[in-house]
User: What shape does this take?
Amino acid sequence: MFRRLSAIEIAEGALLADLALIFQLAATYLPIGGETFRSFTFVIFAILVLRRGLYVGIMGMCISFFLVSVTIGPTHIPLMSLQAMGGLFLGYTMRLRMRHIPLILLGATCGALALFVLVMISFLLAGLHVNTIIQPLRDLYHTSLPVISTIATRLHLATFWHNQLYPLVNTLVNFFFTYWLLLIYVTLWFALVPAVIVIYLATNILVRMLGYDVRPFPDGLLNRVLQQNVRTFLVMSRNRESGWLLRFLITDLRRSYALVKRSLWSRHKKQGYKV
Assistant: This one.
């Protein structure tokens, strides 16, 4: 896996690492809307893997870690590491043209594992025990039982609650309190499934807009409906009655993308590098 990088690979890796640093700076210091810039970190490393492979992507991630630790501080590295590794994962799986459902399930599983390890390390570094979370949940459960019993009695469901529903709930709760590590991991997994879907959708759309041949998400009928909505939106934006601001934003976005693309790669084309 270890190999000598070419000049263009080093240049692209360093350039995209600088872009990741800029987005982290914007997410840290902008008072409003700064957190939205963190999502672009996924796109940056996905593009780097699609262009130059996983090895260059890992090297770019290490460079971005160094830049972030020097400029902002090493405390921002754990959160950025999740975003960077997520971008590397999306870029590598999209390069392999993996199917959507295995990609989402694998992404949620690996992401939940990474978050689980990060949470455990955070508790260890803070000198806290996980029982500081489990014990309040136990107290909340035992406190809520009389309230639920009272509500069931008022709704004339006391017999159903005590004979059928309560034994099942009590068994499940005791199981999860016994295996609380599994409870934390399962909770993180279910929380990450919709997050992975949204991040994958946004990254897939942006990567395809940049011209990379990846499997569209969603595909089939949903993809056709989405493309039709995008075309309708563009047609409406060109209409004079739809407002000058929307037309200005789309025109400016296209002009900015063309200028950035020409300024980034024209120098390498003049030197004879393959882009």
Notes: Residues 220-268 form one domain. The chain is about 80% helix and 0% strand.
